[in-house]
């Protein structure tokens, strides 16, 4: 692995200036150091043979006639992956919702039988999540280098990002307006663009830590894609421990996790239910992977990682419960179209928007 990394860095050094390469190297070292510091025994060792294998509780599996074990099996099989699941957005930004839903439905219907089961729907959503996060991580250094221009100092300032944002709008803004205008008014921007810029500025302030005016490479990933940032996910883990770890041993027991006071914490959206019995089942089945009665940071990090299949299964179960009119545990294209707004606003279609609201 290290030989491949060194080779990649050598190639990058040949193509990029030191001011771009050095922050990337520091970023890689920082993430490696943080993971080793937080998980001295290694994440892989603590996960053991469970390795993200999601065992669905009875409450979740009741939404489908699929056996939980079978649903888990298909999640960790590549037999229907290749060539089946693709991003519906390849149709283009101007495609109407009906066209987008029909396109996505066809891709989710893995066996082409005209029906989408919870297994197919969850598999499709999970593969979209994984592809999105993997792509975001890979592209982050490239986009960072594209923006870090004035000056090229290994940091991205708000002015640099603001210029990048305006240039990528499909409004044909001239260069003079982009470089010199009243940012408080933005007279040439439409309402949607203004709202997007305001959201970006608010999120920018949230991720600033090392420099009050500019973002590092890792902070830029947390800004652009908080769901893909390891440091952001580690912060979520720390929030969970802060709310639930009553004895301060940096581990959670099932008793701490089901504490009625903690169930009112602001991060309760991470969990399936506020019901104590369901919370106990959630802890045992979804969090405590090595079955030792405690959840350490590695298990909690795996639990909050959006690539964990529980996110997709929960989303698929919710969508089917709301759209399945004849209660046969499957969706026809007509049932999906009848709930067009529901699906357009879900992770089935609007993946990035959902993640940015959650993280």
Ends: how far apart?
31 Å
**Could you list the spans in which at least 5 consecutive residues all have pLDDT below 50?**
1-15, 42-91
The H/E string reads HHHHHHEHEHHHEHHEHHEHHEHHH
Name the helicity range.
55-70%
Strand content: under 5%
Q: Structural class, judged by helices and strands?
A: mainly alpha
- What's the number of helices? 19
CATH topology of the domain at 58-133 and 307-354: Recoverin, domain 1
Structure summary, number of beta strands: 6
CATH class of the domain at 58-133 and 307-354: Mainly Alpha
Overall 3D geometry? globular
Biggest pleated sheet: 2 strands, antiparallel
* Secondary-structure arrangement, i.e. CATH architecture of the domain at 58-133 and 307-354: Orthogonal Bundle
Side by side, the strands of the main sheet go 1-6
Radius of gyration: 22 Å
Mean pLDDT: 77
